[in-house]
Amino acid sequence: MLFFTQCFGAVLDLIHLRFQHYKAKRVFSAAGQLVCVVNPTHSLKYAPTRCAAVQASTEQGILPPCHHHEAVHDPQLVPCMCPLFSCPWEGHLEVVVSHLRQTHRINILQGAEIVFLATDMHLPAPTDWIIMHSCLGHQFLLVLRKQEKYEGHPQFFATMMLIGTPTQADNFTYRLELNRNQRRLKWEATPRSILECVDSVISDGDCLVLNTSLAQLFSDNGSLAIGIAITTSKVHSSEAEI
Amino acid sequence: MLFFTQCFGAVLDLIHLRFQHYKAKRVFSAAGQLVCVVNPTHSLKYAPTRCAAVQASTEQGILPPCHHHEAVHDPQLVPCMCPLFSCPWEGHLEVVVSHLRQTHRINILQGAEIVFLATDMHLPAPTDWIIMHSCLGHQFLLVLRKQEKYEGHPQFFATMMLIGTPTQADNFTYRLELNRNQRRLKWEATPRSILECVDSVISDGDCLVLNTSLAQLFSDNGSLAIGIAITTSKVHSSEAEI
Asked: What residues does the Seven-in-absentia protein TRAF-like domain cover (chains A, B) (predicted)?
């Protein structure tokens, strides 16, 4: 009897380990689509210590050297301020990706269509879920932010930024799609350039906006799946508008 | 010279009259789609006088007689409270359409796909834009409401209700689509039954929600065009969810 109990315990342990393994895998494929599990990051706007640490790393020369705003006047240098956190880092557009990966540990995914699976939606605002998306020869940044625009009423804001210039961004269209519980919500727009501030895009509400109850309807077990697709064609701008 | 001046004046008058005529026409066809111009109605929640007038009309027998809530217990009688305004009217589901047309002067349109063109979006909240839509053998009610859920921050809420039971409503899917300024927003869901309260659908935010800045981006000259389509197939519920 004791043998069977021990065997049963061992099987349970194996199942638990297997579950932990799957949970730990940050990228997996489901139904032919690349699904990226994105864990939340508390906004560092209110955590000057980490910003200070980032600054210290920059000063130690671990990251590319900072370029000050005066660089705007030099056509060879593009001022590029990291749009996330209150990070004082600045650099060329070409090194933004390595900065985001190395300093902010943001994952980068390949593919024209991916699913962004944001976990722990219940966490209090402000919280960010961020991923980079490499597609059509460019890198994009998807930001999902939980923020209290109106005190006591957190909302979710999702937008896509091109790690490139506004002129380059004009050549793309991104689509964010939520689909669950007999509801479907699609947002299509031209991505903004990372040279524009993500905070202003969100404060203007020129992005996909979800209130908490709608986010709950679209989420499954505390995770929100957002389908992402990027195209180069400007189909919807040329179509006759309704 | 005086003759020419008078002729010119007459031509101007004719142009003005023609313009007024077009403006007054509430339904017209553009680009093959039926476009319905919907003027705003200030929410009567705060105007007990009109509600009292409606009540008076009902009492005078102009409208179908009221059925009190006790009718719920009789399976032959469906309690049907008008979801708009604070109208105390109640009646059978079959007479809701005539009540809405006669008392609240709400237009009814035919067609599987129509464009709802809400005018004067700048008007202060609370304001409603309402239309009935006859399609696939049923009548639907589209409600666009401007409301201040958070004081000083008006938002727009759009939803579609079936003038029928919740079981009937489950057989349909409605789509609301906004398309302008290189942005597209689509909302698809199962319509709610008119037996459920439109106020609770809106307060839950289980509908298309737009903040003021996004509504401005989608509107043209103070009018917001919402493409509406209704289908019977439950395509999106049977599809693999992302």
From this structure: 134-228
